[in-house]
Amino acid sequence: MSFTAVSEKIIEIKNVRKNFGKLEVLKGINLHVDKDEVVCIIGPSGSGKSTLLRCLNYLERITSGEITIHGELFDKRENDRDVHKLTASEVSAHCASLGMVFQRFNLFPHMTVLGNLIEAPMRVKHMDRAAAIALAENLLVKVGLADKRDEYPSRLSGGQQQRVAIARALAMQPQIMLFDEPTSALDPELVGEVLNVMKDLATEGMTMVVVTHEMSFARDVATRVVFMDKGEVVEQGPPQEIFTAPKNERTRMFLKKVL
Ligand code: ADP
Ligand code: MG
After folding, report:
1. What angle do CA 107, 108, 111 make, to 5 degrees?
2. CA dihedral 236, 29, 228, 238 (to 10 degrees)
3. Are 170 and 151 in contact (CB under 8 A)?
4. What sequence ranges are listed for the domain ABC transporter (predicted)?
5. How far is the CA of 62 from the centre of ligand 1 (A)?
6. Ligand 1 atom 6, closest CA
7. How confident is the model at residue 243 (pLDDT cuts 50, 70, 90)?
8. How much distance in Å is there from the Cα of 231 to the middle of ligand 2?
9. Ligand 1 atom index nearest CA of 54
10. Hey, which residues does 42 pair with through a beta bridge?
11. Closest approach atom of ligand 1 to CA 44
12. 38 lines ligand 1 (CB under 6 A)
């Protein structure tokens, strides 16, 4: 490893606020994600973790602040007004560079596993069918589901469906993967298979932002853990620091409850 290497900021969030009516859900978030990092976001329910991820994808618009992705200004707003606005094609290119996996698997129920994987690459990226199938088959091997290629989602377990959802996100060849509590809707015995797929991705150097309640995953895989509470980033640092010597009282209280 070179000591002169400069970390490359992939996501930069500056002073981001988000209101839903009078409710202020994000209260001035400052956060960055560097290339090859695995950032795990932890914190109590309702602290704004999902909202923050959704703002990175235009699923929600920020109220004010600035988001830069790959060094390019992606969103900049003041009082719900655009200071910088992307064109529709810029938004779609941007969203294609981010893969998102939700708590619920959101697979297309009327399509086979293969159909789910090739749909977006063909429609959005205009990949030809043979290439999309080849890519999908490789990804199914990677998530351990090569034998489920022609199955419909309803015939798969929750863990298998979530692994298909991960493969489907990867089929768009994103530069960053965002996960919003990908295992919290699963039966406990199915959690491990999904976490293992995510661990493999991290080992391969994928840049990831993972909202999770799986503290052992955060401890083992995160390069940085971010603790959010009540719309704020309260504390962040390497997992060994956050889990063994949290500096903030709110972090300590939260960890006491979940560890
Ligand atoms: P977390 O993911 O940390 O549990 P969320 O980002 O889902 O938190 O929610 C943060 C707060 O924002 C909660 O109080 C939630 O009720 C509120 N909220 C989230 N989405 C909406 C919405 N679309 N409209 C109004 N309030 C919302
Ligand atoms: Mg959430």
Report:
1. 120
2. -10
3. no
4. 11-255
5. 13
6. 48
7. very high
8. 12
9. 6
10. 227
11. 3
12. no
Q: Where does the chain have alpha helices with state H? A: 49-55, 88-96, 113-123, 129-142, 158-170, 188-203, 215-221, 239-244, 249-258
Question: 109: buried, middle or exposed (CB in 10 Å: 19+, 13-18, 0-12)?
Answer: exposed
Q: Is 252 helix (H, G, I), strand (E, B) or coil?
A: helix
The ipTM of this complex is: 0.98
165 burial level (CB within 10 Å; 0-12, 13-18, 19+) = buried
Residue 251 CA to ligand 1 center (angstroms) comes to 20
Encoded tokens for 143? 């998530």
Distance CA 83, CA 57 (A): 18
How many whole angstroms separate alpha carbon 126 and alpha carbon 142? 23
**Which amino acid, one-letter code, is at 119?**
E
Which conformational region is residue 226 in: left (phi greater than 0), alpha (psi within -120 to 50 degrees), or beta? beta
Q: Confidence class of residue 4 from pLDDT cuts 50, 70 and 90?
A: low
Could you give the C-alpha distances from 164 to 21, 26, 57, 114, 169, in angstroms and in order?
Answer: 36, 31, 20, 9, 9
Give 108-131 pLDDT, tens digit per residue.
Answer: 999 999 999 999 999 999 999 999
Which tokens go with 164?
């298909």
Q: Cβ–Cβ contacts within 10 Å for residue 214, how many? A: 22
pTM for this entry: 0.95
